[in-house]
Amino acid sequence: MSDKVKVTIDGITVEVAPGTTILNAARQIGGDIVPPAMCYYSKLEGSGGKCRTCIVKVSKGSEKDPRPMPKLVASCRTTVMDGMEVQNITSPEVIEARSGVVEMLLINHPLDCPVCDQAGECDLQNLGYEHGLQKTRYEFERRTFERIDIGDKIQLHMNRCILCYRCVFTADQITNKRVHGILNRGDHSEISTYIQTAVDNDFSGNVIDVCPVGALTDRTFRFRNRVWFTKPIDAHRDCPTCSGKVTLWYKGEEVLRVTARKDIYGEVEEFICNTCRFDKKQTSDWVIEHPTHISDASVIASNHYETLKPLPVIQNNPQLQQANKVELEKTTKF
Amino acid sequence: MARKLLLEHINVPGINTLDVYRQKGGYRAVEKALKTLSPEEVVEEVKKSGLRGRGGAGFPTGMKWSFLAKPEGVARYLVCNADESEPGTFKDRYLMTYIPHALIEGMIVSSFALGANTSYIYVRGEMMPQIRILEKAIAEAKAAGFLGQNILGTGYNLELYVQPGGGAYICGEETALLESLEGKRGNPRIKPPFPAIAGLYGCPTVVNNVESIAAVVPIINDGGDEYAKIGIGRSTGTKLISASGNLVRPGVYEIELGLPVEEFIYSDEWCGGIANGKRLKATVAGGSSVPVLPANLTLKLANGEPRLMSYESLSEGGFATGTMMGSGGFIAFDEDQCIVRNTWNFSRFYHHESCGQCSPCREGTGWMEKVLHRLEYGHGKMSDIDLLVDVSKKIEGNTICPLGDAAAWPVASAIRHFRDEFEWHVKEPVKSLDTNYGLANYAEPIAKAEVTTGN
C-alpha cells in the first residue's frame, strides 16, 4: 500500500498524505475549488467544524466503501480516504447550503462595514460578497453588546463576532493560564475574559490577526485609516521573543500598524509578539524586504500593479468554468 | 394484561430498597452474568435480543457495544445518559425514582460486558432527588458486595459514580455529555472520532440511555432470544412511554412494541382516551424533536392500515406522513390546542438550549423562534410560513450535532400538516389571539388521494 491517498475534488485528482483533511487537500489543488473557511485555522490545534461554511458533499466515500456520505460534511474536519470523491462548487446542493450558512452568519451581524476597521480585509465581507443575498430576510432587532477593552491594546466588539472560537484557541495555545473563553449559551454566547481580566501575554495581540471579522481590533490602529489606503510592506527585525517577520502597513511615510504576514487564506504565517506589533512603529526599527503580495480580488490591491489573470485551475477545466461562471466573469471582466 | 419487564414490581412497597428488590429476584442478572457468562457472551445475548437504544436514535445496543475499541492497557468506560430533558419525556426519571436498583444492576452487567472498571451515571442537574436516590442505592449495593473490589468473588472490580450535570439539554448529546463529564463546557464534539474509539478522557466509551441499560437485566435473566420474541419485527422488547397532554390518564407506561397507537390512546388499560370528552387533534409521538402528526395520520398509516407503536411503523412514510419513535415522549393534543403556539413553544426551547457552537443552529433557532412568536401574536405575514420552511431546511443536516435537526423537524412538520392553521393565524390576527382554530379536518379519515401520494 502506498503512503499517499488519492482524492478527487470537483473532478481534479490529487495525492495527499493519509490523515489530511478535505480542506487541506483542496488547498493543495488551489484555486476556486477551495472551500471557504471562517473558523478553521491551520495554525490552531482543534479549530474548525463550527462555522459550517466549508461544507462539501462526499459523493463517494472511498475505494473500499463507495457509498456517499448521508449529510454534507465539514471539509475542515473530515479526513480523506483513498478514492474519495468530493463535490464542492460543482454541487448545487453545497452552494445552496453554503449560502444558507452565510445568511445565518449575517442575520445578527451589524453590517456596519463603512465604520468597521476590518472592512477591506474581512473574511465575512468576502464570503458575503460571493455567497450572500442582496437583501436580508431577517426583520428583527439584531443582538447588541457593549464594547469591551481587553487590555490597553485590544478592543472586543461582540456585535460583529461570528463565534468562530479562533481567538479562544489562540489564547489556549499561547498561554498556560487561560483567561479568555466563551460565556453563556446559544445566540447569547459571548467571547469574554474572566471578569474583564486583560489577556496578559507577550503574544496576546495575535487574537486580532486570527479574528476573521472586526470583533477584535487593534486599539492603536482603530479609526486611523482604511486598509485600502495603506500600503503593505514585508519587513523583519531581530526580535528576541518572536521571528520578527511582519507586514508593515504604511500611509505615506508613517507606519500605521504592524501585523503578522498572512497567506492567501488569510492565515498568519508566524505569530508575532506584542512588542513588534504595538511598539515598533518606526521605519528605522525594521529591515524592509519588499511590497506584500495582495490578491487581485482584494480591495487593498486597488493601488497595486500586478498582472490580472484567472486562476489556473479554472482556466483549463470546462466543467469548473461552467460551475463557477459568475465568479469567473467577475474576475475576468477587468 | 401486557407483559412487563422493567416495571413488573413497580408497585411493590419498598422496591427502591435493596432487600425488597432482592426478594423480587433482583441482582439475579449480576450473579448469572459474572459467574456463568463471559463478557463476550453477554454482548452476544444483547445482540440476539435486538435491543435498540431507548434514548431516541434507536441504534441497536448490541451493535454499539461490539464497535467499542479494545486497545491493550487503555481503560474503557460505560456512561449512562440520564440527562433526560426532552420536553414530553420523563420515563428515565420515573425509573430512577422508583426502581433505582434496576439501573444499577444493568450498569454492573453492562460494565462487565464492556470490560469497564469505572462507570458513570450522568444525571441532569435538575433531578437532585433522583441523584440522592441513586447514591443511596449505590451505597446499598456496595455494602452488599455488588460493587467495589472483587464483586461476588469473581475478581471483577467496578466503581460506579453519579455525576450531576448542569441542567443543559445539549448535554444529552453523547459527546457533549462526555465533555461535561470531563469538567468542560458542554459543547458537542466534532465526529469522527466517535466515542467508541475516543470518548471520555480519550478512552473508548459507550454511552447508553437509562432504559437501554435497565433492559439488559431482563435480557440476561431470560436470555436474548426470549426478549426478542416480545415486540414486532426489528422493534423487540418493551418500551417505556411517557404519555402526557390531554389524556384521561397520562403517565409512564411500559408497552410491548407493536401495540396499535389507537389502542394505546383509547384503551382503558393505557391512556383511556382524550380528557373531557374532546377529540384528538394531533400527537407528538416521541418527544418534542420528532415531527408532529395530525390525528388521522397518527392512528392510520397513509395506506389505511393501523399505525403501531414500533420504530418501523411510526416512521412509516418518511417525513411526509410519518414521524419517529424518538425517546417515547408521547404528547397528545385535543381539539382546543393551538399548533402554532405549541410549535413556537418547542422552538423557544431549542433556541434556549442551542449551545451556540455552529452557526446554522445558533442563529437559525433564534430566527425561527422570533418568526413563530410573530405568527402566534398576530403580527405574521403569509411569507413567514415559507420563510420558516426555508430556514428549517437550512439548519437541518448542516449542524455538528442532531440538535439542529431536532429544532428543524417540529417546525417543518407542523407547517407540512397544519399549514391552514398557520394561514388562519395570518388572516385572522385578532381572532386568533383568543380563539383556537379547532379540529378542522385533521381527524377526518385520510382521503383516497393522499394514499397515492403517500406511497
TrEMBL record, chain A:
<protein>
    <submittedName>
        <fullName>2Fe-2S iron-sulfur cluster binding domain-containing protein</fullName>
    </submittedName>
</protein>
<dbReference type="InterPro" id="IPR019574">
    <property type="entry name" value="NADH_UbQ_OxRdtase_Gsu_4Fe4S-bd"/>
</dbReference>
<feature type="domain" description="2Fe-2S ferredoxin-type">
    <location>
        <begin position="3"/>
        <end position="92"/>
    </location>
</feature>
<keyword id="KW-0479">Metal-binding</keyword>
<dbReference type="GO" id="GO:0016020">
    <property type="term" value="C:membrane"/>
</dbReference>
<keyword id="KW-0001">2Fe-2S</keyword>
<dbReference type="GO" id="GO:0046872">
    <property type="term" value="F:metal ion binding"/>
</dbReference>
<dbReference type="InterPro" id="IPR036010">
    <property type="entry name" value="2Fe-2S_ferredoxin-like_sf"/>
</dbReference>
<dbReference type="Pfam" id="PF22117">
    <property type="entry name" value="Fer4_Nqo3"/>
</dbReference>
<keyword id="KW-0411">Iron-sulfur</keyword>
<comment type="similarity">
    <text>Belongs to the complex I 75 kDa subunit family.</text>
</comment>
<dbReference type="InterPro" id="IPR050123">
    <property type="entry name" value="Prok_molybdopt-oxidoreductase"/>
</dbReference>
<keyword id="KW-0004">4Fe-4S</keyword>
<keyword id="KW-0472">Membrane</keyword>
<dbReference type="InterPro" id="IPR001041">
    <property type="entry name" value="2Fe-2S_ferredoxin-type"/>
</dbReference>
<dbReference type="InterPro" id="IPR054351">
    <property type="entry name" value="NADH_UbQ_OxRdtase_ferredoxin"/>
</dbReference>
<dbReference type="GO" id="GO:0016491">
    <property type="term" value="F:oxidoreductase activity"/>
</dbReference>
<keyword id="KW-1278">Translocase</keyword>
<dbReference type="GO" id="GO:0051537">
    <property type="term" value="F:2 iron, 2 sulfur cluster binding"/>
</dbReference>
<dbReference type="Pfam" id="PF13510">
    <property type="entry name" value="Fer2_4"/>
</dbReference>
<feature type="domain" description="4Fe-4S His(Cys)3-ligated-type">
    <location>
        <begin position="93"/>
        <end position="132"/>
    </location>
</feature>
<keyword id="KW-0520">NAD</keyword>
UniProtKB/TrEMBL annotation, chain B:
<keyword id="KW-0874">Quinone</keyword>
<comment type="function">
    <text>NDH-1 shuttles electrons from NADH, via FMN and iron-sulfur (Fe-S) centers, to quinones in the respiratory chain.</text>
</comment>
<keyword id="KW-0479">Metal-binding</keyword>
<keyword id="KW-0408">Iron</keyword>
<dbReference type="InterPro" id="IPR011537">
    <property type="entry name" value="NADH-UbQ_OxRdtase_suF"/>
</dbReference>
<keyword id="KW-0288">FMN</keyword>
<dbReference type="InterPro" id="IPR001949">
    <property type="entry name" value="NADH-UbQ_OxRdtase_51kDa_CS"/>
</dbReference>
<protein>
    <recommendedName>
        <fullName>NADH-quinone oxidoreductase subunit F</fullName>
        <ecNumber>7.1.1.-</ecNumber>
    </recommendedName>
</protein>
<keyword id="KW-0004">4Fe-4S</keyword>
<dbReference type="InterPro" id="IPR019575">
    <property type="entry name" value="Nuop51_4Fe4S-bd"/>
</dbReference>
<keyword id="KW-0411">Iron-sulfur</keyword>
<dbReference type="Pfam" id="PF10589">
    <property type="entry name" value="NADH_4Fe-4S"/>
</dbReference>
<dbReference type="GO" id="GO:0010181">
    <property type="term" value="F:FMN binding"/>
</dbReference>
<dbReference type="InterPro" id="IPR011538">
    <property type="entry name" value="Nuo51_FMN-bd"/>
</dbReference>
<dbReference type="GO" id="GO:0051287">
    <property type="term" value="F:NAD binding"/>
</dbReference>
<dbReference type="GO" id="GO:0048038">
    <property type="term" value="F:quinone binding"/>
</dbReference>
<dbReference type="InterPro" id="IPR037225">
    <property type="entry name" value="Nuo51_FMN-bd_sf"/>
</dbReference>
<feature type="domain" description="NADH-ubiquinone oxidoreductase 51kDa subunit iron-sulphur binding">
    <location>
        <begin position="340"/>
        <end position="385"/>
    </location>
</feature>
<comment type="similarity">
    <text>Belongs to the complex I 51 kDa subunit family.</text>
</comment>
<keyword id="KW-0560">Oxidoreductase</keyword>
<dbReference type="GO" id="GO:0051539">
    <property type="term" value="F:4 iron, 4 sulfur cluster binding"/>
</dbReference>
<keyword id="KW-0520">NAD</keyword>
